[in-house]
Specification:
Elements: E1 3-12, E2 15-25, E3 30-34, H1 41-49, E4 56-61, E5 64-65, H2 71-77, E6 79-82, H3 94-101, H4 108-121, H5 138-150, E7 156-160, H6 168-183, E8 187-192, H7 195-201, E9 204-209, E10 212-218, H8 219-223, H9 226-232
Parallel strand pairs: 3-8, 3-9, 6-7, 7-8
Antiparallel strand pairs: 1-2, 1-4, 4-5, 9-10
Length: 235
């Protein structure tokens, strides 16, 4: 088991955004959290990344308690978040953005290998290496954000709403690329409002509702679950 999360509670002032969330991530899987806006999905990702501190609970990664570890320490352990809304550096070039993603990696050969792999995965941005990231299209910025996250050589890549604001064709492309990164040997934790696309590529999934897990199961099983169909798949 790569990650075990026990009874996680995270609050924003009086708002209890996460209320006793417990789950695990197996090494080598794609695990998804689906849920509506305000369900607590991004709060969960930011808590796992160390950006938010839980008021209660425990996060075990690779057999080690990292609950109190800072965000940089978690990146060094191999937990990397590609945040919602891309959050690239618009006034840096594509190349500079990618190299920023590798700031914790000391192996220059590995950085070069990861850099080249980004352009194999995302050929659309290969010719844009010297272009300012802020001038890219929305889809290209999302590709850059995911590419930057892979530069840190993650053991667990956490993707927060990677399809947000993209056209259906680009959504399809992004999900195909997530599967490609997974085939490279990266474990993926995915948070998505696009439940159908997420469940189709997931080994397992959890539904999150107002800060609590309500349903869990294999991705393929949840695609046929009546509650999931009614709540998230427009059935």
């Amino acid at each position: 088991m790569l990650m075990q999360v026990n009874d996680l509670h995270t609050h924003y002032g009086n708002i209890k955004a996460l209320r006793g969330v417990s789950f695990h991530v197996e090494e080598g899987e794609i695990l998804s959290f689906i849920g509506a806006n305000g369900a607590g999905k991004s709060t969960l990702m930011n808590t796992l990344a160390g950006v938010l501190k839980p008021v209660k609970g425990q996060i075990i990664f690779n057999g080690e308690d990292i609950t109190k570890l800072d965000p940089r320490g978690r990146v060094q352990k191999g937990i990397v978040l590609c945040p919602e809304g891309r959050q690239i550096f618009p006034k840096f070039t594509v190349e500079e953005n990618l190299l920023m993603g590798a700031y914790t990696v000391n192996d220059k050969a590995l950085v070069r290998q990861k850099y080249d792999r980004v352009f194999e995965l995302f050929p659309q941005i290969k010719d844009r290496q010297k272009q300012l990231a802020g001038t890219l299209s929305g889809g290209e910025q999302q590709m850059l954000a995911i590419g930057r996250a892979t530069m840190a050589n993650p053991k667990l890549l956490m993707l927060d709403e990677p399809s947000l604001g993209l056209s259906p064709i680009l959504v399809e492309q992004i999900f195909a690329l997530i599967e490609e990164i997974h085939r490279d040997g990266t474990t993926i934790l995915l948070v998505e409002q696009n439940a159908m696309a997420a469940l189709e590529i997931s080994d397992r999934a959890y539904a999150l509702e107002t800060g609590e897990i309500t349903i869990e199961g294999k991705g393929s099983e949840l695609l046929g679950n009546d509650i999931i169909i009614k709540s998230y798949l427009g059935g």
